[in-house]
Amino acid sequence: MFDALTDRLSSVFDRLGGKGVLSEKDVDEALREVRVALLEADVALPVVRDFIAKAKEAATGEAVIRSVRPADQVVKITYDGLVEMLGGEADAEGLKLSLNPPTVILMAGLQGSGKTTTAAKLGLKLGKERKKVLLASLDTRRPAAMEQLATLAKLAEVESLPIVAGQAAIDIAKRALSAAKLQGYDVVILDTAGRTTLDEAMMSEAAEIARLTNPHETLLVADALTGQDAVRTAKAFHERLPLTGLILTRADGDGRGGAALSMRAVTGLPIKFLGVSEKIDGLEVFDAARVAGRILGQGDIVALVEKASQEFDAAKAEAMARKLARGQFDLDMMSEQLAQMKKMGGMEGLMGMLPGVQKIKKQIAEANISDKMVDRQAAIISSMTKLERKKPDILAASRKRRIAAGAGVDVAEVNRLLKQHRQMADAFKMMSKGGGKGFAQMAQMLGGIGGGPGGGMGGMDRLKNLGGGKMPMPSEKEIEEMAAKLQGDSGFKLPGLGGGMPPGLNPFKK
After folding, report:
1. pTM, whole model, 2 decimals?
2. Would you say residue 451 has pLDDT above 70?
3. Domains of the chain with CATH codes
4. At 208, is the secondary structure helix, strand, or coil?
């Protein structure tokens, strides 16, 4: 999401970074390009005008004149403006759950916006927070809508209201509330009917359900890919329903992001969540500061750490640690690592959360770092026998040809994977023998993570000097600070433009 906007803004700020002092003309030209970038991202014109007016006022004040690095200060002003446009810190409170259960959440939206899937995703999220959740479909019009929600509820491992044929939406809502109270549910999620377009019948039914159930949260689900149509839909629903928040689906496919940037400013409603994949767990809490950081190419390290902690399997990690301590690293273990990467959003998803990656997209593309590369590597390992995965040294030319044919790749790719595995295995052996000193040697050996020619994970040599050797990967100290952040510490700072985040730009600073 926001890829085009991030690219455009990065080029603007790169040009500013080469100037020690910014003239008023420099500021005007930069803001003009920012304005064009926002409009190209499909941000509503009134929102862009307001943003530029506030940014220009701030950029021509004493703060920029006195700044040691004026360019960094302009980045900060843009960051602050984006955070305000997206809702600021006040919106990052999540769902408002009632102190007296059950909490009633009403889902509204047009047909095809992903409303039913999002209801199940929300159920899964709340279930992980140890809430007892009941899903209820009030969609009596769309064929198999109720059956779809029941199926998704099983995937989300939450309960769904039993289907009674012929019941009206109002009666289903009453039955859901009664069941939630009698059976001790913490949250009941009501999935209302949608239409392909706005109409009076749909609005009247949704308004009547809202009046009857008095929901604690009324969430509008809108498709981010519809751009300004999503904004208009939100305004129309808000005029008839007491909406409390928005959920944008298919955000991962929206390269422009104009709907997200416009919705909060146009409707005044907070964006609560982003749907980031079709998977049942593909729902992210929306955080204005962190999204603004992503737009400016600063990545989102906190989200990366959170994903890692969510997917962490303590038993598997402990078993692998014992093997690595003995210097063991076979292809089965390597396959587990690739699967873990896929669970966390794939190579592209993870790299999108790393600071500075946006600036080296060309080099990454040349090094063939992608989810397809990971899929091919997993396919190669899957095409091996158990013995071959345990003892790759037995892989002669005939075996390699068979594996390549089974995985649908060239023998050269099999050789690259084996070379990568051999280097990693040697590194872990060295680490197990050398104790703490082995870490530095291991880092030197592992090198890169690409898929092109040159070995390593397929592109070691080409990746050693990505970004001129200045790729802002987190240090050991920063990783420790990330962990501290997750425990409540607020002093963490990302590496950023000019060697450090501009003052006040740290999205993790409370």
Report:
1. 0.62
2. no
3. 3-91 (1.20.120.140), 103-286 (3.40.50.300), 301-469 (1.10.260.30)
4. helix
